[in-house]
Amino acid sequence: MAEKSPASDVEAGLLTHLNSAGEVSDSRSFASSLGVSHLELESVIKSLSAFRIVDRTDVIKETWVLTDEAKGYAAKGSPEAQLVDAIPPEGASKDALKAKLGDAFDVGMKAAARNKWIGFEKGNKDLVLRKVENVKDELQDQLKRLANGEVVPDRVIDDLKRRKLITKEKSIWYSLKKGPEFVLKRKILATDVTTEHLRSGDWKFLEFKDYNYGAQGQPIAKGYVHPLMEVREAIEYIFITMGFAEMPTNNYVESSFWNFDALFQPQQHPARDSHDTFFLKAPAATKLLPEDYLEKVKQIHQSGGYGSKGYGYDWKREEAEKNLLRTHTTAVSARMLYKLAQEKPFAPKRYYSIDRVFRNEAVDRTHLAEFHQIEGLICDYGLTLGDLIGVLEDFFSSLGMSKLRFKPAYNPYTEPSMEIFSYHDGLKKWVEIGNSGMFRPEMLLPMGLPEGVNVIAWGLSLERPTMILYGIDNIRDLFGPKVDFNLIKNSPICRLGM
């Protein structure tokens, strides 16, 4: 093989050949004729085609090639044939055959038994016997034919793929013709004017390369905002423009009192079961609870009050003191309403929160053990269900969800309660997007809020609208250890309502 030529010699050889012959049908064979690698010729071809000096046609061919394992079988024979050849007339033990064949033993045993080439001594499954004198090694023959470029039936290809003995390899080469700007020798165009050009004056005679006004600059190294944060910021902006103030949500660990009892949720409620709630081992309980308020909550649960019969059970303080990972941000709402009730005189408030909650749920495409909950509430005199519906229509229309329906529902701490549905144009159906209701008097009045003050509230997850807006169908692709950073980098900024 001749010594490799510099790139300029390769280019000169290619242009000379095209000038006389008019075309190159196969760049691989032409590279061999020049004594250079195809990779060297390829770089010259791409450069010349960029300046339209040559026209190139890409030729792509996919071929099946043998794996390293298959190459060994093509040379030595298939594992099953090697196994039969290794068995003497009197038979051999499995250990002896394994020591001789190595990794091919297990595969060879299965294939030879399937072909009925081997058997076992009666009462001794360790002694392997030959059942045939000679074998026709079809696998070795098939591998050799494939390695030589011969065509083999599709059923053979399928069998070799199943045994992972072949893999697909893509080859790319080029056919070439003269381009519209063809020249026998390419001019070297200048890209800059140097001080030497100015001093000598030869800048007057230089030909300059065209300036590419469409070229992109170097990408700027920067961070990217997660889709959840994009949607969160948009929703926060909606709350703020509607006059809401953010509640502090930095306490992931809550007591059962604020998470359940203060919300008029009975201690035997299914939501407190260990299958739904993460309880803490250390610290397992809290003693820092408002005593006067706790006593009122106890009485409401046991005996009722404020028009309620209560639940009629023996309320236990030790159950209320248990620490847990909060199951909803409504626990934060209960704290804020209690704090508001202590402020005199009473002043109407609008609050919102967006933060994580935790539930012991089975992880699947739409559920995680932790997720984000969005919650909004309004506390004022004389609020009605009509006010709640009006606020919900304003809120969700800002999210691009103007088609709403409401369905009666049950919540322990709201009455009446409504599930919120929105029509999804992409899915062509109504989809549940949240829950809402008016907090019960049994929850509000023990806090000390004045008579006639009502609280309307609603909640939804952050993940569900984000998945809809970004076209993500698996929550694990959005949130958690399996998230694809390319998704974050390449996703356009979300536009709510689109």
TrEMBL record:
<dbReference type="GO" id="GO:0046872">
    <property type="term" value="F:metal ion binding"/>
</dbReference>
<keyword id="KW-0648">Protein biosynthesis</keyword>
<dbReference type="InterPro" id="IPR004529">
    <property type="entry name" value="Phe-tRNA-synth_IIc_asu"/>
</dbReference>
<keyword id="KW-0479">Metal-binding</keyword>
<feature type="domain" description="Aminoacyl-transfer RNA synthetases class-II family profile">
    <location>
        <begin position="230"/>
        <end position="481"/>
    </location>
</feature>
<keyword id="KW-0963">Cytoplasm</keyword>
<dbReference type="GO" id="GO:0005737">
    <property type="term" value="C:cytoplasm"/>
</dbReference>
<comment type="subunit">
    <text>Tetramer of two alpha and two beta subunits.</text>
</comment>
<keyword id="KW-0067">ATP-binding</keyword>
<keyword id="KW-0547">Nucleotide-binding</keyword>
<dbReference type="InterPro" id="IPR002319">
    <property type="entry name" value="Phenylalanyl-tRNA_Synthase"/>
</dbReference>
<keyword id="KW-0436">Ligase</keyword>
<dbReference type="InterPro" id="IPR045864">
    <property type="entry name" value="aa-tRNA-synth_II/BPL/LPL"/>
</dbReference>
<dbReference type="InterPro" id="IPR040725">
    <property type="entry name" value="PheRS_DBD3"/>
</dbReference>
<protein>
    <recommendedName>
        <fullName>phenylalanine--tRNA ligase</fullName>
        <ecNumber>6.1.1.20</ecNumber>
    </recommendedName>
</protein>
<dbReference type="GO" id="GO:0005524">
    <property type="term" value="F:ATP binding"/>
</dbReference>
<dbReference type="GO" id="GO:0006412">
    <property type="term" value="P:translation"/>
</dbReference>
<keyword id="KW-0460">Magnesium</keyword>
<dbReference type="Pfam" id="PF01409">
    <property type="entry name" value="tRNA-synt_2d"/>
</dbReference>
<dbReference type="GO" id="GO:0004826">
    <property type="term" value="F:phenylalanine-tRNA ligase activity"/>
</dbReference>
<comment type="similarity">
    <text>Belongs to the class-II aminoacyl-tRNA synthetase family. Phe-tRNA synthetase alpha subunit type 2 subfamily.</text>
</comment>
<dbReference type="InterPro" id="IPR006195">
    <property type="entry name" value="aa-tRNA-synth_II"/>
</dbReference>
<dbReference type="Pfam" id="PF18553">
    <property type="entry name" value="PheRS_DBD3"/>
</dbReference>
<keyword id="KW-0030">Aminoacyl-tRNA synthetase</keyword>
